[in-house]
Specification:
Number of helices: 2
Largest sheet: 5 strands, mixed
Shape: globular
Strand content: 35-45%
Number of domains: 2
Number of strands: 12
Helix content: 10-25%
Distance between the termini: 62 Å
Amino acid sequence: MVRRRVTMLLAVLIALSACSGQDIVIWPPAGSNTAPAGTVVALPDVLKLGESAEITGEKGHPLTVTPVGVYFYRGRVGDRTLPVEKWFAAVAIRVEGADRMPPDAVGQWFVRHGTRFFGTSSGNSDVAPWVGSTNAGMTPVAPGAPEVAIKTFDVPKGGGQLQWTSMEEPPVRWQLPGRTAGEGLDEVVTFMKNR
């Protein structure tokens, strides 16, 4: 009986979300110890490229993350690997604090296009031309010495929303521009020019 009520409540919440045009999320996920499972919260506003958010680092210390640039690459004849979807997207994320980015088991970066989510291992994103030649964000960050991490995605088109999702905190979203823009992509641009 309780299971039926919970299922019905979830169906109603999903229907209300679709009608209202506002995203909602059941937070936190089951198994999280931050609040009673099933708490319904509205997702925060979508941030712009260059706006910061605070997330929890690998060892539990706060990190300030700021997506500062995006580079789109479609591939060309002769490339060892082409995107499965249509474009490779390199997103430069400035990381500040005294910790390191959490591993994928704790939190993940995605690019969302409508109802589809593309992670850092979707399609051929993990073998894009610059992967292995750029900082993927797994090195510790020292206080006062921000690092720029490059996260790579295989996406169907430019734009979309960059999203950080973690078991420990509500998702954070940024709107990505539809074409290459911003800063922090020097490693990617240099690699692509010199290959």
